[in-house]
Specification:
alpha/beta; Elongation Factor Tu (Ef-tu), domain 3; Rossmann fold; Ubiquitin-like (UB roll); 3 domains; six-stranded antiparallel sheet; 18 strands; globular; oxidoreductase; 2 iron, 2 sulfur cluster binding; 2Fe-2S; monooxygenase activity; monooxygenase
Length: 355
């Protein structure tokens, strides 16, 4: 079963650079309640194909909550969806879109923020920065790495924001064409002056790996170190059209008994949007997301395949077994993060929170 999707009209297409376009959506009145994003979240978009149906892709929001809903898409080599969007999408067109998802968002908008972006990874970073400048009180330091000056997305917007908030916002542009690729030592030296900030990192995998390693060496606590992670979806969260690319995965039926898991239904206590609900009939062979949906709980998700972090929750008590995990790293697991769409109970009681 797919979550509710909405057909959104394209209000504008803005060419940010030769390779990146921002897509501005009009949200109809009956969908506004569903489209109330947090800064740094993403949308899942159905990109159409006359031949193959659709490609489901996740694109980060560059807009701040309260602004017109906008994602920014950069072409990728041989990327069907990103190239189709940049080549074909025009104002007046429509796309099917799932509501905002993701946990790459500040818990405290008043906190001091250290934001690292590489290339198109600036998209959720500028969403966070715009929101924090508008609603928060903290200081914001941005390290933005690009290939060259022509590759800088939102160059004029960053300049405008820095001019309007000289006492709160510092933006440092790092250009590979001038300075070479940033090294771990250079990233560590930059971050060393901001050890009490909350750090957010988004960009190409090598950039994120180097930046996160630098933060770890500086002993940034896990609770203040955030890394965006989701991948192109192999499955189809929209439910009624075959996707462009399908990935067939052989997954064995979970045998919770051999893992020492409960033979009888487990008890689940889950917190979502400030409300805590308890159920005592969670079947050990049913993923948590599917169980909550059957109970009428609108738990977040996007891909259902273990390929994104939209359904992530924090485990507070007990344990679960994830059938598949393509996105969480060991640090996330150590911090209690699990994927609701893949989690089966292995203890009699499980407590968790989506906040």
């Amino acid at each position: 079963m797919a979550t509710d999707s909405f057909l959104l009209s394209v209000a504008d297409v803005v060419e940010e650079t030769a390779e990146a376009h921002s897509i501005v959506f009009e949200v109809p009145a009956d969908a506004r309640e569903s489209f109330q994003p947090k800064p740094g979240q993403f949308l899942t978009v159905a990109v159409p194909s006359d031949r193959d149906g659709l490609a489901a892709r996740c694109y980060s929001l560059s807009s701040a909550p309260g602004d017109q809903l906008t994602v920014t898409v950069k072409r990728t080599a041989d990327g069907y969806a990103s190239n189709w969007i940049c080549d074909n999408l025009r104002p007046g067109d429509t796309l099917r879109v799932l509501p905002p998802s993701g946990i790459f968002t500040p818990a405290d908008i008043d906190a001091d923020l250290l934001l690292f972006a590489g290339g198109s990874g600036v998209t959720p970073i500028i969403s966070i920065a715009r929101t924090a400048l508008r609603e928060g009180k903290g200081r914001i330091v941005v390290f933005y790495a690009n290939r060259d000056e022509a590759s800088v997305i939102f160059a004029e917007e960053w300049a405008r924001l820095a001019a309007e908030h000289p006492d709160r916002l510092q933006v440092v542009h790092w250009l590979e064409s001038v300075q070479g690729l940033p090294t771990g030592e250079q990233l560590k030296a930059f971050a060393a002056d901001h050890l009490r900030y909350d750090a957010f990192v988004c960009g190409p995998a090598p950039f994120m790996k180097a930046t996160v390693a630098a933060l770890k060496e500086l002993e940034f606590p896990r609770a203040r170190r955030h890394q965006e992670k989701f991948s192109s979806l192999g499955g189809n969260p929209f439910g009624d059209v075959a996707p462009v690319e399908t990935v067939d995965v052989e997954v064995a039926e979970p045998d919770v008994d051999t893992d020492g898991g409960p033979k009888q239904p487990a008890t689940l206590e889950i917190e979502l949007d400030g409300d805590t609900t308890t159920f005592d009939d969670w079947d050990p062979g049913t993923p948590m997301l599917e169980f909550l949906e059957a109970k009428g709980v609108k738990a977040p998700y996007s891909c259902r395949e273990g390929e994104c972090s939209a359904c992530a929750f924090r485990l507070l008590e007990g344990e679960v077994k994830m059938v598949r995990n393509d996105v969480l790293e060991q640090d996330d697991l150590d911090d209690g993060i699990r994927l609701g769409c893949q989690s089966l109970p292995t203890t009699d009681t499980v407590r968790g929170t989506y906040s």
